[in-house]
């Protein structure tokens, strides 16, 4: 058995059960462990219950450290968190994009500012309670390559949140519970009588807590009333971009394939239909033949520009003169909102629109015009897209040795949000960006979010025999 006593590990102890059990495992494995609790947020007025979650979390974390028998330290990183995560969030929402604060927190805080603080305290590694696995292998030249594998618990895999980490950051990272499933983590916590054993999992924005997002964003973004416009199916029959999307996708299908699919099978995050890993419906030579301009247009969503004309009429016994909108075959103004920047594509809560059989979803936010466009039902054409683009400046390779060259085409499995089942897709690298073309349409592709791509683990590279997991290769901002 290896002697780990000379390896100093800092566990980021949050007060939750996952990091608590991670600390316990490290201690049992003989590492020289100490706990570091970071405070990243002060303003309790932004949380739904209005109390200081971090104070309770710190108290529990300190009890856990005492129970495990490790030193406990505290660091205030709230200034860094506000500057590098929260201010970025405000800026992105103001532009009509939807950022992922958890991904940013890992890249900018946990494995940067927090890591530097831990190293000043003598740490060789930083450990967290993420449900993912790390493996280190040697390449042909004997250089270390650090790999992020999906966690053993398929319901809790959190590798997506680490999709922006670098090889340097991974070289100093440990994930002690990556091989364990959540029920076992709870069991270990109870067995060790840890104070966090029954603590509920945290929700909401990383280190801020459960918030009402519009209220949170209104700290910097001013409300501004605008129209909510429902888009009817007739709009797509006459839309040039939608016709281009359909005809271009059809043109690159393999010979013998049926008509191109334009609407997703998505129902909800836990019930979405995972794409079966199989044959790609697209012909690689045909895809290679598409110009950069064709791919750029293929990656762009349908835009909405529905004009409403007014007419006057007389109403009531006194024939009072009133104004109303004329009927429009493409859509209808169905409500008001407090600011397009407070909404995101795919959102259905908070719209306050009645009179529909099915749920109503946001399909576009027009920030300059302050208009929200919505559609009824999961099968609305505006909710589905097949292709997205990542700008060259936003492409990030975890496996730098597998970086794609311009003109190269590869098959990967991709997710565009946490908990989404991996989807089969073709990645096409061009001068003007990396294009991800899904085998089946995806619901709610949203600018500002992260797309992460994975590949099945090769048994020859894995230290675990019969490993059927996946490795995350890279990511990028949509």
Topology:
Layout lengths: L7 E5 L4 H12 L3 E8 L13 H16 L3 E5 L1 H17 L6 H20 L4 E3 L4 E7 L5 E7 L16 H4 L2 E2 L7 H10 L21 H5 L8 E6 L2 H4 L2 H12 L32 H5 L3 H7 L11 E6 L4 E6 L5 E7 L22 E7 L4 E6 L7 E7 L4 E3 L11 E7 L7 E8 L2 E11 L6 E7 L13 E8 L1
Parallel strand pairs: 1-2, 1-4, 2-3, 4-7, 8-13
Antiparallel strand pairs: 5-6, 6-20, 8-11, 9-10, 12-13, 14-18, 15-20, 16-17, 16-19, 17-18, 19-20
Helix pairs in contact: 1-2, 1-6, 3-4
What labels describe this entry?
478 residues, alpha+beta, Rossmann fold, SH3 type barrels, 2 domains, five-stranded parallel β-sheet, 11 helices
Task: Write a short abstract of this structure.
The protein is of the alpha+beta class and 478 residues long. The protein is built from eleven helices and 20 strands.
């Amino acid at each position: 058995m290896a002697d780990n006593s000379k390896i100093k590990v800092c566990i980021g102890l949050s007060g939750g059960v996952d990091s608590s059990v991670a600390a316990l495992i490290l201690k049992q494995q003989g590492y020289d462990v100490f706990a570091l609790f970071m405070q990243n947020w002060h303003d309790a007025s932004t949380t739904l219950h209005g109390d200081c979650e971090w104070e309770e979390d710190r108290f529990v974390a300190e009890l856990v450290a005492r129970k495990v028998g490790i030193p406990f330290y505290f660091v205030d990183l709230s200034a860094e968190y506000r500057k590098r995560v929260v201010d970025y969030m405000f800026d992105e929402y103001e532009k009509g994009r939807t950022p992922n604060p958890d991904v940013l927190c890992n890249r900018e805080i946990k494995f940067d500012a927090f890591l530097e603080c831990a190293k000043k305290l003598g740490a060789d590694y930083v450990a967290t309670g993420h449900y993912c696995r790390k493996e280190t292998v040697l390449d042909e030249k004997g250089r270390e390559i650090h790999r992020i594998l999906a966690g053993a618990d398929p319901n809790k895999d959190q590798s997506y949140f680490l999709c922006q980490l670098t090889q340097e950051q991974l070289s100093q990272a440990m994930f002690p519970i990556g091989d364990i499933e959540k029920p076992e983590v709870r069991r270990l916590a109870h067995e060790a009588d840890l104070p966090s054993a029954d603590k509920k999992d945290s929700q909401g924005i990383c280190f801020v807590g459960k918030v009402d997002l519009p209220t949170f964003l209104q700290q910097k973004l001013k409300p501004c009333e605008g129209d909510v416009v429902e888009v009817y199916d007739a709009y797509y029959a006459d839309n040039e971009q939608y016709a281009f999307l359909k005809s271009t996708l059809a043109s690159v299908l393999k010979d013998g394939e049926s008509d191109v699919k334009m609407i997703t099978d998505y129902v909800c995050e836990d019930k979405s239909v995972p794409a079966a890993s199989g044959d790609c419906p697209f012909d690689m030579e045909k895809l290679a033949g598409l110009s950069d301009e064709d791919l750029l247009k293929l990656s762009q969503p349908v835009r909405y520009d529905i004009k409403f004309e007014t007419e006057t009429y007389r109403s009531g016994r006194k024939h009072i003169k009133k104004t109303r909108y004329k009927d429009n075959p493409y859509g209808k103004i169905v409500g008001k909102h407090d600011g397009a920047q407070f909404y995101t594509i795919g959102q259905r809560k908070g719209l306050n629109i009645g009179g529909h059989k099915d749920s109503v979803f946001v399909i576009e936010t027009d920030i300059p015009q302050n208009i929200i466009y919505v559609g009824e039902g999961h099968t609305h054409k505006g909710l589905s897209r097949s292709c997205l683009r990542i700008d060259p400046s936003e492409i990030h390779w975890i496996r730098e040795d597998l970086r794609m060259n311009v003109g190269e085409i590869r098959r990967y499995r991709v997710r565009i949000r946490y908990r989404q089942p991996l989807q089969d897709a073709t990645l096409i690298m061009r001068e003007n960006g990396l294009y991800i073309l899904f085998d089946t349409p995806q619901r709610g592709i949203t600018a500002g979010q992260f797309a992460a791509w994975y590949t099945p683990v090769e048994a020859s590279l894995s230290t675990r025999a019969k490993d059927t997991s996946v490795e995350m290769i890279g990511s990028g901002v949509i």
